UniProtKB/TrEMBL annotation:
InterPro entries: AIM24, AIM24_sf, Trp_RNA-bd_attenuator-like_dom. It comes from the Bacteria. This is TIGR00266 family protein. NCBIfam families: TIGR00266 family protein. It comes from Aureibaculum marinum. Pfam families: AIM24. SUPFAM superfamilies: TRAP-like. Gene3D superfamilies: Mitochondrial biogenesis AIM24.
Length: 266
């Protein structure tokens, strides 16, 4: 194997974290800001890119880092390596309510494609690259743009997605229509495209957007019930308005309810 072999346990239900056990000299790479805790004896180091091109010299490091810029991520990632003789543990937390999805890339022929912000961490040696869309319509209206993330290698990788996760196994020719924001990732042989919703009423009043993501098998697809963009939109719409006035907290009394609960000042 070119990737480090790691053991792991996923803790929690809605706000999960993954605890990874590292043997001596084993390492894991993670996105900045996902670190939660670690045992004494683990060495933390910041590197350009994902660490998969470190043996290729300066050009390899720059190319690895440049791929991350195209996906909107930082140039740098953090490596956590067990520098002691015994086993050590390091943990990484979910950025928002949802589920952590473990992916053994050897089960997916060494490649998995996911949305740009889904990657959480992986065994060192896993390449976190880019997957360009070859179709204009998919790139413009697919919700993920022209670029998605591509995880390659023979080790473990971990994704995070919002809400509850649904795993679909598509047979050859089987098609699944998904909201563009709810798509988390899919295996390399799944054909990903977009489809117009159709109908004047659906387009204007449907509230579900103009396009579906269509995924045609064979392959595995992961779907999330609560995309972060949808969660953020709900939070913003429920935030206090000008003057710290709320929306009556769902009450039919509206502003009268604010008077009763003492929010208004005279």
């Amino acid at each position: 194997m070119t990737s480090h072999e790691i053991d792991y346990i996923i803790h929690g239900e809605e706000m999960q974290f993954v605890e990874i056990e590292l043997d001596p000299q084993e390492a894991v790479v993670a996105e900045a800001g996902s670190f939660m805790m670690m045992d004494d004896g683990i060495k933390m180091d910041t590197i350009l890119g994902d660490g998969s091109g470190q043996t290729e010299g300066v050009l390899g490091k720059l190319f690895s880092a440049g791929k991350r810029l195209l996906t909107g991520e930082s140039l740098f990632m953090t490596v956590f390596m067990n520098a002691e003789r015994g086993k050590k543990k390091v943990a990484f937390a979910s950025p928002y309510p949802g589920k952590i999805i473990p992916l053994d890339l050897t089960n997916f022929n060494g490649k998995f494609i996911c949305q740009k912000d889904a990657f959480l961490c992986a065994a060192k040696g896993v390449s976190v690259g880019i997957e360009f869309s070859k179709k204009l319509g998919r790139g413009l209206f697919g919700g993920e743009g022209f670029i998605m993330q591509k995880l390659e290698g023979d080790g473990m990788a971990f994704m995070h997605a919002g809400g509850t996760i649904s795993k679909k196994e598509l047979q050859a020719g089987e098609k699944l229509k998904v909201d563009t924001g709810c798509l988390v990732g899919f295996t390399q042989h799944v054909n990903y495209d977009i489809e117009y919703v159709g109908g004047i009423k659906n387009t204007i009043f449907g509230g579900e957007g103009l396009f579906f993501a269509t995924l045609t098998g064979p392959g595995t697809v992961y779907i999330q019930s609560l995309p972060f963009s949808r969660l953020a939109g709900r939070i913003i719409s429920s935030a206090p308005q000008t003057g710290n006035k709320n929306k009556g907290e769902g009450s039919i009394l509206g502003g009268i309810g604010d008077l009763l609960d003492g929010d208004n000042r005279f």
